[in-house]
């Protein structure tokens, strides 16, 4: 894998995030590079290295990324993968603030993270599809994920894929179908 250029050209900086956007400063000390495709879900070194591209990264608060969200990623991997007899599909995304917030006035900061899992071929287990939404802002309202007492505000709500699709449809104002064909939710 080729290293990302240390000094990206202006065309690249205009179209996507660059490493400088994530460098800690007094204006953004709490944000980390939150992986959309988790490193822990990859089996080979090449696949793990591929997750470190900036196109797989969003600004995620450290307390979420290293806490409840990381725990969810590991929990889902351990809960679903042993029962998959074929491929396990994972889709992860971010829900932006309704009033955009930017990191270094360039990179959109998500209010919530979401993830959906599907295992179309599985052994005896109740998990065919699964989903969750996690807070990336402890001060967000309770409209998507309620704030718990012991979570410091970075709660993760587990749900069905259909419930996640409904949340995304309401927030993004568009029809959403996360999985097709064999991954269509059945009896969640």
Automatic annotation (TrEMBL):
Domain DNA/RNA non-specific endonuclease/pyrophosphatase/phosphodiesterase: 2-163
SMART domains linked to this entry: Endonuclease_NS, NUC
Residues spanning the signal sequence: none
Classification via InterPro entries: DNA/RNA_non-sp_Endonuclease_sf, Endo_G_ENPP1-like_dom, ENDOD1, ENPP1-3/EXOG-like_nuc-like, His-Me_finger_sf
Domain of life: Eukaryota
SUPFAM superfamilies: His-Me finger endonucleases
An example Gene Ontology molecular-function term: nucleic acid binding
Record-annotated ENPP1-3/EXOG-like endonuclease/phosphodiesterase domain positions: 1-163
Alphabetized PANTHER family for the sequence: ENDONUCLEASE DOMAIN-CONTAINING 1 PROTEIN, ENDONUCLEASE DOMAIN-CONTAINING 1 PROTEIN ENDOD1
Designated name of the protein: Endonuclease domain-containing 1 protein-like
């Amino acid at each position: 894998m080729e290293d990302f250029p240390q000094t990206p050209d202006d065309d690249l900086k205009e179209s996507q995030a660059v490493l400088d956007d994530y460098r800690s400063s007094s204006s953004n000390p709490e944000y980390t590079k939150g992986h959309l495709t988790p490193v822990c879900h990859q089996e080979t070194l090449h696949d793990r290295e591929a997750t470190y591209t900036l196109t797989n990264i969003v600004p995620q608060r450290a307390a979420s990324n290293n806490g409840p969200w990381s725990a969810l990623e590991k929990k889902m991997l351990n809960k679903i993968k042993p029962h998959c007899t074929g491929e396990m599909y994972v889709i992860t995304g971010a829900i932006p603030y309704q009033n955009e917030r930017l990191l270094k006035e360039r990179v959109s900061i998500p209010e919530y993270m979401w993830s959906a899992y599907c295992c179309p071929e599985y052994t005896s287990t109740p998990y065919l599809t699964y989903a969750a939404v996690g807070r990336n802002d402890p001060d967000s309202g309770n409209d998507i994920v309620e704030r718990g007492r012991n979570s410091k505000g970075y709660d993760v709500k587990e749900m069905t894929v259909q419930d996640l699709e409904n949340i995304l449809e309401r927030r993004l104002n568009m029809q959403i179908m996360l999985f097709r064909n064999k991954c269509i939710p059945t009896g969640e």
